[in-house]
Each structure stands twice: as C-alpha cells, then as structure tokens.
Specification:
Elements lengths: L1 E4 L5 H8 L3 H7 L1 E5 L1 H9 L6 E5 L6 H12 L3 E5 L1 H8 L7 E6 L15 E6 L4 H14 L3 E5 L8 H6 L8 E5 L1 H9 L4 E5 L5 E2 L9 E5 L8 H5 L3 E4 L11 H17 L1
Parallel strand pairs: 1-4, 3-4, 6-7, 6-11, 7-8, 9-11, 9-12, 10-12
Antiparallel strand pairs: 2-5, 3-5
Helix pairs in contact: 1-5, 6-10
Length: about 270
C-alpha cells in the first residue's frame, strides 16, 4: 500500500511524531528509525519496517528501492511526504530523507537461551541512551548473546540508543528485568556473573572467566550497589593510571568483554 501525505495534522504524522516519546512507544509497541544505513542494517538482519516514510524529493538509491520492494512484499505501507513534514516527524532540521517504523520485539528475560553465546552483557540502571547503544555495538563486536537491562535503564528503542548502536539493536537480543528477576533466572541455570569492583577483586587480566559469562556494568554515576556486587561470582579490577577513578560504563563493559573473550577462546 502506498499513499502521499501533505498535511501536518494528518493522523499518521501525529502518530509518527509521538514515537519520539518513550510513553507512546511503549503504548504503541513501535519505534522509529531514521536513515537508510540503519534501515539497511535492519533489513540485512531480517527485519523490515511496518511503515516506510520517505521525503518526496529524495535522491534515488538502489538500497532504498530494494527496501521498498521488501516492505511491500511483507504487506507493509509506504508513505511519501514533504521534507518539512519528515523533519517534523523525526524532530531533526535535516532529516536523512527516509525513516521506518518497526514493531518492538519481545524483551522478556525468559525467552533468552543462555547457551547460544559465551558472553552476555548486563547493565544495571544504565541511564544514558548513548552508553546503551554503545554496549549493544560492543556486544555485536564480541559475539555476545545480547544485552540484559536490569532496573530502570534507558529505552533501547529510543532514537538515540538505536543510532548509537550503529545497527546492533537489530543483531543483539535485548531483555529487560528487575534485579530479583534477573538473579532468579541466572541462578536457575549455568552462568558466571562478573563485575568490575574494588571489593575483594582480582586483576581483570588473567581472571578465571567461565562460559556463559555475564558481564555486569553499573549505573554511570553510582556504580553497582554493594549487595549486587556480593551476588557476583567474580569481581575484577582494572588499573587506573591517571587521575580518573573509573571508566565510562560502556567503555568498562567493552574492556571486560574483550578480556573475557580472549580468556574463553584461549
């Protein structure tokens, strides 16, 4: 189905604009992705948008033409509109000419199969969507099973997190749970919980990492609560050579992920 929209007050325009807000994304079960590169990453990962919206004055592109065909084949909708309306939808002064609406996928913890990967990333109350997206990107790079979000984390389907993930939101599994739910699920099967810590910690290099390894990163400003650290099977410390007393949460997760990967593959 194809149609053209010319009015700012069109209900579809209002709906697409509302997806910039977390509350409306949750209610609709949908999220908005802008830019051909991210849409192509989604398509190559087996996901096509329910709705594709394009500026009428866009430049023709082979990848976009293929995406249009696949959206139509899947029974999706294609909307053309003016650049001004697309700017209103995305909230950007210079939108990239194309955006897509995807259904949010199931983020329940119990659907994960821990044995599919040797490493999983876990973030506790990670508030910055850029850090969340970066952790997804790290997970993709190291072949992690996915990212488990514990507590009140940023929304993985926000435009900022999706953009920071560089498409990894489409390749990595994402689950959301409370701390109690996560610990109950983890202890019901195999899995080593590892966190960076200063409490009874060993050097992160040469530590005894075991598969499946769940690497836990805490809140950007507060770190991990003491009782959460006490639940960990292994606590490791990374040397700080300068004046800083800690690493960025997403960076710490990346450092640990590559060290654990090297140990598990060695």
């Amino acid at each position: 189905m194809r149609r053209h929209i010319t009015g700012f007050s069109n209900p579809t325009v209002k709906h697409l604009r509302s997806l910039r807000d977390r509350k409306h994304r949750r209610r609709a079960g949908e999220f908005l992705v802008e830019g051909l590169r991210l849409l192509e990453d989604a398509r190559s990962s087996g996901r096509v948008p329910r709705l594709l919206v394009m500026a009428e004055e866009r430049e023709p592109h082979e990848l976009l033409a293929r995406l249009e065909r696949e959206v139509e084949a899947a029974g999706g909708e294609i909307v053309t509109t003016t650049p001004d309306i697309l700017s209103k939808i995305t909230g950007k002064a210079n939108p990239q000419g194309v955006a897509g609406v995807f259904a949010e996928w199931d983020t329940r913890l119990d659907r994960l199969e821990r044995s599919v990967a040797p490493i999983w990333l876990v973030a506790q109350e990670l508030r910055d969507p850029g850090n969340l997206g970066t952790m997804l990107r790290t997970g993709d790079a190291v072949g992690a099973g996915g990212l488990i979000l514990v507590g009140d984390c940023a929304d993985p389907f926000s435009a900022e997190a999706v953009r920071a993930s560089m498409g990894a939101v489409f390749t990595q599994q994402v689950a959301r749970a409370s701390w109690e739910e996560f610990i109950g699920w983890l202890r019901a099967g195999e899995g080593q919980l590892v966190a960076a810590s200063l409490r009874e910690a060993v050097p992160y290099r040469g530590a005894d990492y075991r598969s499946p390894c769940f690497l836990l990163v805490g809140n950007e400003s507060r770190g991990l609560p003491e009782d959460y650290e006490a639940e960990c099977d292994l606590r490791v410390t990374m040397p700080m050579r300068g004046r800083a007393d800690s690493l960025n949460a997403a960076v710490a997760g990346a450092v640990l992920a590559y060290e654990a990967l090297a140990a598990l593959e060695g």
